[in-house]
């Protein structure tokens, strides 16, 4: 059974890696991701505790870690790991005069990052027709192979042969045969 700290760490990792691919997932969170998480947990409410106040607290949490000579926080770093996040919640609790355990419980209660306000597919039939490569004609048809997969630059650009002959020369490679 997961303990509260493990659950908090899982939520931290979920928000820290949200929107990143496997190559860019670091398990560290920047101010933007932390703001999103705390807004969804209603810790940043825009009235009693604003995102501007949070940004200052976030920077302070990083500076506190650097003063402790934490090797995970070299000079110039702008992201926090899970331990820094726990310290950040403690700093926020002190500034907002709330209990740190209540803040951690609010974060643990999150389902995951929301995607409200993002653009969805308006009409899947239209999108399907536009992306159906079997209906392409002319030069656009040449950009895809038989399976419908794009050819990349090979399908977009006419590449010169650079073999010393002008285009459409019919006697190519015949000089050595005649002489």
Entry summary:
The protein is an all-alpha fold.
Report on the architecture of this protein.
The radius of gyration is 28 Å and the shape is elongated. It is mainly alpha-helical and 179 residues long. Helix content is 46%, strand content 0%. The protein is built from nine helices and no strands. The longest helix has 17 residues, at 51-67. It has helices at 4-16, 31-40, 51-67, 82-96, 100-108, 124-130, 138-141, 153-156, 175-178.
Averaged pLDDT, please? Answer: 83
Q: Work out the oligomeric state of the chains in this entry.
A: single chain
Q: Main β-sheet, in a few words? A: none
* Number of DSSP-assigned strands: 0
- How many helical stretches? 9
Which blocks of ≥5 consecutive residues have pLDDT under 50?
Answer: none
Distance between the termini: 86 Å
Helix content: 40-55%
Order of helices and strands: HHHHHHHHH
Question: What is the global morphology?
Answer: elongated
Which labels suit this protein?
single chain; 179 residues; mainly alpha
Outline the secondary-structure elements.
Layout lengths: L3 H13 L14 H10 L10 H17 L14 H15 L3 H9 L15 H7 L7 H4 L11 H4 L18 H4 L1
